Amino acid sequence: MGSPYKQLTLAERYHIQSLCELDFSACRIGKRIQRSNKTISRELKRGPPNEYSADTAHLDSLQQRKEAAKFHKRAAPVCRQVKALLGLGFTPEQISVRMKLESFGGAISYQTIYSFVRENQWCDLLPRKGKRYKRRKGVEAGAGGRLRSYAALPYSGRIG
């Protein structure tokens, strides 16, 4: 299936710049730094033709990451809204639906809210304080347990 996606580092971009100045092809540069030639050709197209600059390409990539939808979900207003709703006793599932209905900064999933809780250590704001639900078992489990205990009694044949 291929290797997982890994973004270029600044050091790799400097390496690309130096090899580009020596008129290496994208294929040869890719083999040198052990990256796909498609990745290298895409990187070389970032700037003006025949003028690749590692610094500007790196700044552009950082800017693209900040403008991504994933980054906006972690913005400060979203975090404040989530913390406020957790403080009111809402569950992450309820917060997710509420923010979707109110269209507050786009949709945010309950999994993302749980990751906020873990990162910021807000477990005490959750309704169960971050503990999982434990199902009760045995006789003390409510009506089912009482019915089983009555069934164990001997039947005398008389009513009343």
Automatic annotation (TrEMBL):
Residues 5-47 form the Transposase IS30-like HTH domain. InterPro entries: IS30-like_HTH (IPR025246), Transposase-Integrase (IPR051917). It comes from the Bacteria. GO terms for molecular function: transposase activity. GO terms for cellular component: cytosol. GO terms for biological process: transposition. This is Transposase, IS30 family protein.
